[in-house]
Amino acid sequence: MFTGQQIAFIGGGNMTEALVSGLLKTGQVAPAQIIATDIRPERLEYLARSFSIRVSSDNARAVSGAHMIVLSVEPQILDEVLRGLTPSLDPDVLIVSVAAGYPLSRLNRVLARTGRSVRAMPNTPSIVGRGATALALSPDLSPQDIARATALFESVGSVTVVEERLMDAVTGLSGSGPAYVFLIIEALADGGVKAGLPRPVAAALAAQTVLGAATMVLETGLHPAELKDRVASPGGTTIAGLHALEQGGLRAALMSAVEAAAERSTELGCEPPSR
Ligand SMILES: NC(=O)C1=CN([C@@H]2O[C@H](COP(=O)(O)OP(=O)(O)OC[C@H]3O[C@@H](n4cnc5c(N)ncnc54)[C@H](O)[C@@H]3O)[C@@H](O)[C@H]2O)C=CC1
Ligand SMILES: O=C(O)[C@@H]1CCC=N1
Q1: Which end of the chain is less congested by CB atoms within 10 angstroms, N or C?
Q2: Is the C-beta atom of 171 inside 6 A of ligand 2?
Q3: One-character DSSP codes across 33-92
């Protein structure tokens, strides 16, 4: 699928590292087919040393001749980065953006082009091959374009295609969600320590409990409430813990977290006021 294709990653941070690592592990892409750019020389040196890919500090040169471009810089600087690419950009090149909140319409407007673009929202578990990515597709993509974008993110986890209007909600849930879960794991471990467990034991039990519970949801297909009910024995320990969580407003807090992050994603995508 990627035979003879050159892939340029603009911005060589965490997300690019996860995707480059995943792609190379599939064996579908050789290191020489990948170029990554960054403004930090130490980052370029690290990527070249770790993956034997080509690296550059020149975004415009990196995209020249590329068949697929993956945009992985902060959304706040993406307009400026795109303007720097325009002179060397093939107008038909497939562009995949992972920038939070940044709409495809804005991407095409800034680049003065009409399409062949994908807006993606991956998450950091991609680093360990357990990512969850949602893709929004521009209407003019070929089946081969879609297959390539899907293969890129399937190399680091699961892929779901959604309408673009849902991407801010996706960002608030699965894009930002790993941070909520890390906080929950940390807090569970703190509870374990408070109840007398050594910290390493508490941390390992907390993480494995979250992994196991998530795996049950995915593998049984049962509603989480049904699985919750099966843990809670009448008059037992779990219902006492669940009552404490309801008193603390855990459900409302998590719903508000997703909503706040989705709203922030929408804000990030809004055009800056014209001066
Ligand atoms: N970290 C996360 O959990 C997720 C991040 N994203 C999106 O991925 C994108 C990248 O995020 P991360 O990799 O986490 O950030 P990061 O900060 O690790 O990587 C961004 C990289 O871009 C480089 N950079 C800055 N200006 C540049 C320029 N002009 N040209 C080339 N490179 C430049 C920075 O030096 C940095 O290494 C963002 O748009 C973010 O919204 C999407 C999903 C999840
Ligand atoms: O916090 C952020 O803006 C990025 C996008 C989703 C996860 N991290």
Answers
A1: C
A2: yes
A3: GEEEE-S-HHHHHHHHHHH--EEES-HHHHHTT-SEEEE-S-HHHHHHHHHHHGGG--TT
pLDDT over 70 for what percent of the chain? 99
Confidence check: pLDDT of 275 > 90: no
Q: Hey, how many other C-beta atoms are within 10 angstroms of the C-beta on 162?
A: 15
What distance in angstroms lies between residue 18's CA and the mean position of ligand 2's atoms?
Answer: 15
- 15 assigned ligand-binding residue: yes
CATH 3.40.50.720 fits 7-167, yes or no: yes
The pLDDT tens digits of the residues spanning 167-198 come to: 999 999 999 999 999 999 999 999 999 999 99
Distance (angstroms) between ligand 2 centre and the Cα of 123 equals: 8
Ligand 1 pocket residue status of 8, Cβ below 6 Å: no
Confirm or reject: Cβ of 174 under 6 Å from ligand 1: no
CA of 176 to the centre of ligand 2 (A): 5
Among 3.30.360.10, 2.120.10.30, 1.10.3730.10, 3.40.50.150, name the CATH number for the domain at 177-268.
Answer: 1.10.3730.10
Q: Which helix (H) or strand (E) holds 226?
A: helix 224-231
Q: Where are the domains of the chain?
A: 7-167, 177-268
Q: Tokens 């409430």 correspond to what residue?
A: 225
pLDDT in tens, 220-246: 999 999 999 999 999 999 999 999 999
Q: Tokens 């050594």 label which residue? A: 198
| Closest CA relative to residue 25, chosen from 134, 120, 154 | 154
Q: What is the pLDDT of residues 193-213, one digit of tens each?
A: 999 999 999 999 999 999 999
14 is in an annotated binding site: yes
